[in-house]
């Protein structure tokens, strides 16, 4: 809608649809944060409370725990992956619709303008998703403090 009919964006999409999408994003993010926070505060820490990062990431806190947190970690991973998969599917479907709309633009110059707007955004979304996957899904066997710090900084900056 924003590409093909930019002046009619508000009338075609509507404020109610925008509010529903924002509420879904905020609600799922809040639920994910509450679950992670509740899990983190319920962990007993037996190796002190100094995290070897510049901010507290969940994998770093799990390293400090002296309890067997495998079931908790799997449960949170399932919830987080469900939310992330839903977001990812929504983003992919949105980009498919955008690319279909751009390819229907009759002028070459119009398609070029639309792609020059979409591609940087797609690059940033891809970098964000890839750094998040590396930060949270890499096996502990390839973990090192310098790599963890670099990935965490890159993930937080992006």
Automatic annotation (TrEMBL):
Q: Where in the cell is it found?
A: Cell membrane
Q: Which UniProt keywords apply?
A: Cell membrane, G-protein coupled receptor, Membrane, Olfaction, Receptor, Sensory transduction, Transducer, Transmembrane, Transmembrane helix
Instruction: Note the InterPro entries from the entry.
Output: GPCR_Rhodpsn_7TM (IPR017452), Olfact_rcpt (IPR000725), Olfactory_GPCR (IPR050516)
Residue stretches making up the G-protein coupled receptors family 1 profile domain: 1-158
Q: Which Pfam families match?
A: 7tm_4
Spans through the membrane? 74-96, 117-137
What superkingdom does the record give? Eukaryota
Protein name as it appears in the record: Olfactory receptor 14C36
In which organism is this protein found? Aptenodytes patagonicus
Q: Organism classification, top ranks?
A: Eukaryota, Metazoa, Chordata, Craniata, Vertebrata
């Amino acid at each position: 809608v924003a590409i093909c009919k930019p002046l009619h964006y508000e009338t075609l999409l509507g404020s109610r649809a925008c509010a529903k999408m924002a509420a879904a994003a905020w609600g799922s993010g809040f639920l994910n944060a509450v679950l992670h926070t509740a899990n983190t505060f319920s962990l007993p820490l037996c190796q002190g409370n100094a995290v070897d990062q510049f901010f507290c990431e969940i994998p770093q806190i799990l390293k400090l725990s002296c309890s067997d947190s495998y079931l908790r970690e799997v449960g949170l991973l399932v919830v987080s992956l469900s939310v992330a998969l839903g977001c990812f599917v929504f983003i992919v479907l949105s980009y498919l619709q955008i690319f279909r709309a751009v390819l229907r633009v009759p002028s070459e110059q119009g398609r070029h303008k639309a792609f020059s707007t979409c591609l940087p955004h797609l690059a940033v979304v891809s970098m964000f998703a890839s750094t998040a996957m590396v930060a949270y899904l890499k096996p502990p066997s390839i973990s090192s403090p310098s790599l963890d710090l670099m990935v965490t900084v890159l993930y937080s900056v992006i």
